[in-house]
């Protein structure tokens, strides 16, 4: 299986805050026993897993979700990147959210590994994915009193688009490691990050791209050695988490290439996201919003700081040690900031 672009191609070539305060209205948060209990839950039999039917113009398909914990006021739906990657990018959340008694829901979007994977390019549109998220929300019983939406990379695009249409359903929005403009992302990748590389290496990568020779093993080799370990996940290849390797293995390249394209230096060619730009719409987001940027990200951290100032009620979380997967390579800053945001919104202190 081949792997492409912004969430890391052919990696397989190289690798064979603890207490919960009372709520401001005097209600106590859930106990640890209540948080962990499956009693009287309709997903007890499956250990929290629900296959949710999604209605589309091309028929009805099932998407996979798994709920962790119980908390009536703090429920976080996780939108993975890609498109076409999986919820496995978020498995490190298991190490942080449970002790804070934050309920969270893993979710594989339609076309991703644990959900149905129809072979129809007409399904892979941002607009249809937005309606899918809304159907998932309804099926899980999430609402404006408890619903936090966290999207990273492509998931950040999807989270923004969802908020533009359905923000009245949200308690809080978290945009992680995603700019609000693909043209701006392209410019940052090609004018800033690329030239930071060894000039000879960058020249060879660009030559392979210009020739559209993306399946050349040399292309993946150069990117992994000189780009991924600098800007995607800042760890030696042998230390990359097993969950990340699993999401590569499970990637759906049809969805990924159709929407994102092949190139590691921006979204180009016929990819459907290449002209996506919502900079002028950010001012319409009124729900409390956290925007996360990282120093070494594939995305411009200054642009993401600007996004947090452009929305009506925003906060910026900067990860000085992080890259695109800052939930792994800058965990302390990432999770402290995300948890603080959720707690502040929950207690009406935002």
Automatic annotation (TrEMBL):
Entry-linked InterPro entries: AB_hydrolase_1, AB_hydrolase_fold, AB_hydrolase_sf, Peptidase_S33, Pro_imino_pep
Active-site positions on this chain: 153, 297, 324
Record-linked NCBIfam families: pro_imino_pep_2
Molecular function terms from GO: peptidase activity
PANTHER family with a match to the protein in the record: HYDROLASE, PUTATIVE (AFU_ORTHOLOGUE AFUA_2G14860)-RELATED, MONOACYLGLYCEROL LIPASE
Protein name: Alpha/beta fold hydrolase
Family: Belongs to the peptidase S33 family.
GO biological process: proteolysis
Keywords: Hydrolase
Species the sequence originates in: Muriicola soli
Gene3D superfamilies on file: alpha/beta hydrolase (3.40.50.1820)
GO cellular component term, pick one: membrane
Domain of life: Bacteria
Residue ranges of domain AB hydrolase-1 in the record: 76-330
